[in-house]
Design goal:
Strand content of chain A: over 45%
Number of helices of chain B: 0
Number of strands of chain A: 12
Oligomer: heterodimer
Shape of chain A: globular
Distance between the termini of chain A: 41 Å
Number of helices of chain A: 0
Structural class of chain B: mainly beta
Shape of chain B: globular
Order of helices and strands of chain A: EEEEEEEEEEEE
Helix content of chain A: under 10%
Chain lengths: 115, 112
């Protein structure tokens, strides 16, 4: 079974600074998808970024980018120019490419952006 | 465009009472549907998922059940709530295949 580990329960960053959230996963699959979701205080889950394992290029969405290291099974999220609105829980998630299988989530990292 | 509706937003129920949470998706057909529970603002626990009408997979044995009476409707139920059923319940959907989820806005359930 796949597992996703987020080793940082809580982090903080100064406004306008850069922060990196860690995620590692364990799988025997060769083709899969990885996601980062954001859950602000409203508790609405929002998709931040998505990475296909067969793509070597790291995904980027505006201030959000990932460092995908397939051999190391690592998928970290970098937030540049942090804003107060980035304060949220961040969840890393894994999905197999075979069939309709559910996402497997990590336990989350609570990020606080400090003014 | 596709939208997902989940209700109610909040619910306070006594121990031993029944439960029915509803989730519907619009603007798509044959979606995969999911129920997750989140306790104490931490991780998401998958409860049930469905890849088609009448097809329900249960991930955690407990006093909850799920049904999918229509293609775009997913219902979470309980005959008798326990205190431990308190939490934040999220419904989600995705298209067939390896696609990320779109989540509903959640239901905060407090069992008293």
């Amino acid at each position: 079974a796949q597992t996703v580990t987020q080793s940082q329960p809580e982090m903080s960053v100064q406004e306008a600074e850069t922060v990196t959230l860690s995620c590692t996963y364990d799988t025997s699959e060769s083709n899969y998808y990885l996601f980062w979701y954001k859950q602000p205080p409203s508790r609405q889950m929002i998709l931040v970024i998505r990475q296909e394992a067969y793509k070597q290029q790291n995904a980027t969405e505006n201030r959000f980018s990932v460092n995908f290291q397939k051999a190391a099974k690592s998928f970290s999220l970098k937030i540049s120019d942090s804003q107060l609105g980035d304060t949220a829980m961040y969840f890393c998630a894994f999905m197999k490419n075979s069939g309709n299988t559910p996402l497997v989530f990590g336990k989350g990292t609570r990020l606080s952006v400090i003014a | 465009s596709q939208t997902i509706h989940q209700w109610p937003a909040t619910l306070v129920q006594p121990v031993g009472s029944p439960l029915s949470l509803e989730c519907t998706v619009e603007g798509t057909s044959n979606p995969n549907l999911y129920w997750y529970r989140q306790a104490a603002g931490r991780g998401l626990q998958l409860l049930f998922y469905s890849v088609g009408i009448g097809q329900i997979s249960s991930e955690v044995p407990q006093n909850l059940s799920a049904s999918r009476p229509q293609d775009r409707q997913f219902i979470l139920s309980s005959k008798k709530l326990l205190l431990s059923d308190s939490g934040f319940y999220l419904c989600a959907w995705n298209s067939q295949g390896p696609h990320g989820y779109t989540f509903g806005s959640g239901t905060r359930l407090t069992v008293v």
